[in-house]
Structures are given as C-alpha cells and as structure tokens.
Amino acid sequence: PEQGLQQGGGGLGRSWVCPPDAPWCGHCRALAPEYSKAAALLAAESARARLAKVDGPAEPELAEEFAVTEYPTLKFFRDGNRTHPEEYTGPREAEGIAEWLRRRVGPSARRLEHEEDAHALMDARDVVVVGFFQDLQDRDVATFLGLAQDALDMTFGLTNRPQLFQKFGLTKDTVVLFKKVGQAGSERGRGGGAGSPDPPGVVQFDEGRADFPVDKELGLDQGDLSRFLLTHSMRLVTEYNSETSSKIFEARILNHLLLFINQTLDAHRELLAGFREAASPFRGQVLFVVVDVNADNDHVLQYFGLEAREAPTLRFINVETTKKYAPEPGALVTAAAVTDFCRVVLSGGVKPYRLSQEVPPDWDQRPVKTLVGKNFEQVAFDETKNVFIKFCECGCGGRWAAGALLAVLTCPILDAPWCTHCKEMAPAWEELAEKYKDHEDIVIAELDATANELEAFPVHGFPTLKYFPAGPGRKVIDYKGARDLETFSKFLDSGGELPTEEPAEVPGAAFPEKPGNATEPRDEL
Length: 525
What we know:
Blueprint (H helix, E strand, L loop, with lengths): L1 H5 L3 E7 L9 H19 L4 E7 L4 H6 L7 E6 L7 E2 L6 H12 L4 E2 L3 H10 L2 E6 L6 H12 L4 E5 L2 H6 L6 E6 L29 E5 L8 H11 L4 E3 L5 H6 L4 E7 L4 H4 L1 H9 L6 E7 L5 H6 L9 E6 L4 E3 L9 H12 L21 E4 L4 H5 L5 E7 L27 H16 L6 E7 L15 E5 L8 E2 L6 H9 L32
Parallel strand pairs: 1-2, 5-7, 6-7, 10-12, 11-12, 15-17, 16-17
Antiparallel strand pairs: 1-3, 3-4, 6-8, 8-9, 11-13, 13-14, 16-18, 18-19
Helix pairs in contact: 2-4, 11-13
C-alpha cells in the first residue's frame, strides 16, 4: 500500500473490513465484482488510474491515518498525495466507477473546436451540456468543470470559439443543455449521457435546448446550475421504473402528478398526449410521472391506496408534506382536466385525502388492539384510557418520498421478515399486552402506518412508540426508552415517565470530603 500511494497518477483505494467473499459482508461482496470490472475497463483504455484494495484489519495504521470507520470505504489519491484524498461519492457499479475516475484523471468536459465537434457530441447522446465561455481561464469555467466531474449521467463539452457562439446564437457566456427531440410519449430510459436509446416512437424531449446564461456580476453558481440541469434534463413526462426512480426524487421538485395507466391498453396509451400537453406550463413546479399498473409497481399503488382496476386515474402528492390529492371520481384524463386539477391543488382548492383501512371486526379481541385511521382518534384520545401505541412500517421505507425525497419504493409490507426493527420488538410488545390485558385503563395497540395516515401528526421512523395518557387535552408523549418488557412496564406503571437511573459509580473515583458534622446516609430496604 505504501508503494502504491507514492506512485504518480490517480488511484482509488478500497478498504475492506473482511475478505470480499465473506458471506456476512454483504456490501463488500456486492462491490467486489464491480470494482474488478472497473479496473479492467480502465486498464483496457490505458487510463492514468489504478484501483487497489486494502485489508483494513491487516493494515490498522493505514485505516487510522485515513479515518476509515466503515467498510467498504473508497478514497481517491491524486498524484501520490496522501494528505488530502478525495472521498468517493459515485455509483457502486463498474461503469459508474470508471467514469467517475475518467473525469478526474482526464478532462470532465470535451473541448470543442469546430462545429463538427459539437454536432458529433450531440449526435452521440440524448443529453449534452456545453459551456460557452469567452475566456477559458475564468473562474466560472472551473465551476462548470467541477460540476461536470460528478454529473455522470450527462456528457459535457466546452468551447471558447467565436464561430460556435455565432452558430448557436450566443453573445455572452452561457451553459446550454441540448436535447434530442422526437415523437410524443413518455420517458422510459434515463435520458442522460449514460442512458440507452429509447424504443421507436417514444418521446425524446419537448424542446431541443435550454439556456442558462451566466450572470456577469454574480458569476456561475454551481447549485443553481445543477438544479437547472436536473430539471431540464428530465422529460416533461417521466415513466416511473427502476432506472428513472432516482432521478425523479433527485429533481428537487416537490409536487408530483402521477398518471396511473395500463400500458398494454390502447385507450390508456392515448391519454399520454393530453397528459404531456398539460405538463408544459408546470415545468419546474410539478413533475409529471406515468406509472404502469401492469408493471411491477404494486408498492406504488399500495402507497396511494389504489388498485390496478382503478386505472386510468390521477394522484397528486407534495413530497415534502406527503399530502396526497385525488380528482373527483370518474374525472376525465384530458389536457384541460389535468391542467384544472393541478391548478386547483396548487391554489389550495382541494383537501388532501388520507389512507385508512377498514376497522377489523375483531380489532379489540386480542391483547394487542388493532388500530386504523378510522378508529384511531376514538381510541387514542379516550379520556378514560392510557393508550400505548406502536406505529410500524417496514424499515426499508415504502413511501413515494421519505423525508429526503430519495425513497426507492420497496419493502412496503408491515412487519415484513426483513424489517429487523419491527421483528425484534414484536415479542416484547405482545408480552406487554398480555401482562396488562386485565387493566381496564390501559390499552396496548398497534397501527400500520403504511396503510393508515393520521391527521393528528405525521409519523417518521419505524417502529415509533407514542403514549396517550388518560384525561383531557389530547396529550401525547413520545417514548424514548429501551424496547424491552421491563422498561415498558416501568413506563406504564409510572404514568408515562421513565424512572431516572442512578449514575454508575466510576471505579477509582475520589469520594468528596464530608463536612465534619455530616453523617453517613443509610440504605433503606
């Protein structure tokens, strides 16, 4: 490792906590083949980058020097500089790793000298970003190239040639996003430099380019440019699938309008033209998404409380508040109807809807009572009862947007076998309910927060425990203690308070001196 760090060029180091083939190291095992493929790709290109790996436990001094605390960790060392390695932030698949390195050991944007260079670049990709700068030594160029290093799903070009400024109708420094334009439809691929070609007849983009002029006084702001490129690199209508999901939630557009259709039905596909027509005025404000109910999207349907037979239909969601809106039953899906629905929701003219399961006939027959949205208020805020409720959901997250807007819609089932937090706590919760089942004033309950939404308060993180003490005032206490039967019991017996633990005595600690007339307190049994 020492020799590798001292050699020139760029290198990516990987630290392992265990051998890559160890069955218990899932992350290391998943990365190992991709890391090897990336090394082979770069070697075949004779790139000035090499990949290496370090066994962390076998090299503790290196792990400590580079502050490696979790595995696998990837760090990039440039030209033998060991004092300031760059943390790897790219994808964990072979082509993504290789491209991330290419843009660091080589140019992150291709230099365009002639009109033929520009057209060749644009013909090769669906989305191309070209920076037109009159002075390539300007600090705005460095900002542009810095962004290009990490925007791996786009291809970047750079020019200062007057003839290219003239060709594309520019008189000042401008970043231009060029997009291919085709027939009407919806996005199915990535739409970026790394995406595969679309099937015949599927839309490319609504317009051929989008311009981002550089402010002479303020200069080029990387954050503003990044948001601009992300928004305008997306098509007006994006079809939700495993390839587009990350881009949907990274777009930082808080309002999403979803059209649920069955792509195998001609009548449903004909609705796409009107849906796309309605999208244009809302670009940057509302993200238009198509969900195929005939594909593997049951988790999306579940989150919105829908069944496939209800398609075609619309749902609107604000991913920050998670409030969901539905049109009137039987509403048409035309350009005019979609436009009106968006405007009404954005102006606050329609109330959000909340999901609730039906109240089970035997909801109160087991020691653990079953709550849903429709009986939650009646039970939780009963002034004669102390109610302890577990709000649970699969810990992997099954929401359209979970807090940071980056949720991938998986694992929506309550208490799924892979939801370790819910699974681990379940026995203690059942034992607690059994212990207090004969206490008239105590109710132990659970609510599936995936299928039931509450007006009283949002629930974030699962399982979440809340205590609703008897009496007026709708008081709610968040439980923050240990999740075992003994601590649960102490909490209930004390009326919703956790007993204060005595501080542990530190071995060897000096005792404070007692005043002369002080007496030794006695321990009472």
